[in-house]
Design brief:
Layout: H1 2-10, H2 13-43, E1 50-57, E2 60-75, H3 76-81, E3 92-99, H4 103-106, E4 110-114, E5 118-122, E6 128-132, E7 137-147, E8 150-151, H5 159-205, H6 210-241, E9 244-249, E10 255-259, E11 263-267, H7 274-290, E12 293-294, E13 299-300, H8 303-334, H9 339-351, H10 356-379, H11 394-418, H12 422-430, H13 435-464, H14 469-472, H15 499-508, H16 513-548
Helix pairs in contact: 2-16, 5-6, 8-11, 8-13, 10-11, 11-13, 12-13, 13-16, 15-16
């Protein structure tokens, strides 16, 4: 018996099962995590039912209106310990986190309610949800519409359709205002700033150049005139967008006059069919991906964060690939194999284990303060004391992450070079090729799939890093994208938004954590999707290269 057991262990079968079990558990954990993120994140965009509840709150009868954001079962003792007045004897109680909105009227967005205190629950078909530019959602019932302060005589049954028509008009005006403020006036401000710097540069040079000064003044006057035209156009648009108002009542009977200019979208979730809800769901998802954030990132979209993340990863890839590949080629093909080379390899491998925040501190000290400060002194003295490259930005963040991921590329490339048989090199040299030609035309193409593997690993790590970026360029809200139509188009010195930092900010720095919690899951899901898409692109290139150079291996 003992011999049979020993034979079983010596056969290696238990270790095979142990490894298979570890892999299975890891896969289950990864899949479970992705399912959790997907369910919580994607569920945020589904139009939720609005409930009207007659509720017994500390002995007083009140009416609540809102969405059930979270339902859970908790011990009754826990509720009593929290100071809640209870008139029931159940051991466990169902508790609901009700999103009641109307923060400008109640001061809070959510209210905890317990099932035994719910006297009557209704689903009003005419309940309306406004998504507003500020103060979060509004829940209520429409009473009337007004234009320039005058109430319109509109029948009750067509009030909703009339509201939708007027919101479309407001949306078009808002787009025009956004276009003028963000792009046209932004372009003028950019040119005025360039003129100011040019004027300051002339002053610092000490050269009296009347012709240049006249030219600057002429251009400035033209830009000022253009600005006045845009300002006049903006004033008209703001007057037009402020025309319409809607009178709403909330569940306690109070009335609230709301400008349609403050309303992003109006919906009646309880009156929606399944098809309408599905269409509405995809519109919400599209808006989340393409819009700018609002209300300290707790509302709106995440487009600037997606753009900043992709931009930084692409720039990092362009920087890290040549450095990593050249270093690996030198170590494998040219360096004399000995103690020093082994020491360098050990150092490179250990660099991969250094905490990322250490890279952030190094990037802040060396790239931002030292390199950026000296670049400002040499090339942008007219902008001082305002730093140009002497503060965190896209370039320094990309360089810091390139430094963080370069060990991964070196190790993967070296592994690829080591797998190429020496007979390939010897055959090439025997045919009269130089060592450089052998490397360039034979060895490097055959090792290119391994290089792409290193790049894939580097992209996966860089896209998810947050700690170093907090020191060298990522910010809560960036006023402009690092890429626009103003020359030189790619602004490497600008700060940018990052999905990882956005998750941290929304989840832990938000003034309204409960409202922002679904956004944390949704943003995390988008971050995973971005990383997967970047990796799939690299994997496609790697497979293409592998097929292209497969014949050279035989």
């Amino acid at each position: 018996m003992n011999t049979e057991k020993l034979g079983f262990f010596k056969s290696g079968t238990p270790w095979v099962w142990l490894n298979a079990g570890a892999v299975s558990i890891s896969m289950i954990m990864v899949v479970g995590l992705l399912i959790l993120i997907a369910v919580r994140g994607l569920g945020h965009f589904w139009p939720k039912t609005v409930w009207e509840i007659d509720y017994l709150d500390s002995g007083n009868q009140v009416v609540l209106l809102g969405e059930r954001a979270k339902v859970e079962t908790v011990p009754a003792k826990q509720l009593i310990a929290s100071g809640l007045h209870v008139d029931f004897e159940e051991e466990f109680v169902e508790r609901t986190l009700l999103k009641i909105g109307n923060r400008d009227m109640y001061g809070v967005d959510f209210k905890l309610v317990v099932k035994p205190n719910e006297q009557e629950v209704r689903k009003p078909v005419d309940a309306i949800v406004f998504e507003r530019t500020q103060w979060g959602n509004f829940y209520g019932f429409i009473q009337s519409l007004s234009e320039n302060g005058n109430t319109l005589e509109i029948e009750k049954n067509i009030l909703w359709d009339e509201l939708q028509d007027r919101l479309k008009r407001v949306d078009q005006l808002r787009d025009q205002i956004h276009e003028i403020e963000k792009y046209e006036i932004g372009k003028i401000n950019y040119k005025i700033e360039k003129l100011r710097l040019r004027e300051r540069r002339i002053e610092l040079s000490g050269v009296d150049d009347p012709k240049a000064k006249v030219e600057i003044e002429t251009q400035r006057k033209k830009l000022d005139d253009d600005y006045e035209v845009l300002k006049s156009k903006l004033e008209k648009l703001y007057a037009e967008i402020a025309r319409d108002q809607v009178l709403m009542t909330i569940q306690d009977g109070r009335e609230k006059l709301i400008k349609l200019a403050d309303v992003i979208k109006a919906t009646k979730p309880n009156a929606m069919s399944l098809g309408t809800k599905i269409a509405h769901y995809f519109v919400n998802l599209k808006n989340f991906v393409t819009d700018d954030p609002r209300e300290a990132n707790t509302e709106g979209g995440i487009f600037p964060a997606i753009f900043g993340t992709v931009m930084m990863v692409l720039l990092m890839s362009v920087i890290v690939t040549p450095f990593g590949v050249i270093a690996a080629i030198y170590l494998r093909e040219y360096a004399k194999q000995g103690f020093v080379t082994r020491l360098v390899r050990i150092s490179v491998n250990n660099l991969a284990g250094v905490p990322s925040i250490v890279y952030g501190v190094f990037g802040l000290g060396f790239f931002v303060y030292f390199l950026g400060g000296n670049i400002d002194q040499l090339f942008y003295p007219e902008a001082l004391p305002s730093p140009t490259f002497g503060s965190g930005g896209l370039l320094w963040a990309s360089l810091t992450l390139a430094l963080l991921t370069v060990p991964v590329v070196i190790v993967a490339t070296e592994e690829g070079l080591a797998r190429i048989p020496s007979s390939v090199r010897e055959g090439s040299l025997a045919l009269g090729a130089t060592k450089a030609e052998t490397l360039w035309r034979t060895v490097i193409p055959m090792a290119s799939p391994a290089m792409m593997t290193g790049l894939i690993l580097a992209v996966a790590r860089a896209a998810g890093e947050v700690a170093p970026l907090m020191l060298v360029g990522a910010v809560k809200l960036a006023p402009s994208l690092p890429l626009d139509l103003n020359a030189p188009f790619l602004h490497l010195e600008r700060k940018f938004m990052h999905l990882g930092f956005h998750i941290y900010d929304v989840g832990f720095q938000s003034p309204n954590v409960e409202a922002a919690r679904p956004l944390v899951y949704a943003t995390a899901l988008i971050l995973v999707v971005v990383i997967v898409l970047l990796n799939l692109s690299a994997i496609y290139i790697r497979n293409h290269l592998r097929e292209k150079y497969r014949t050279m291996e035989h």
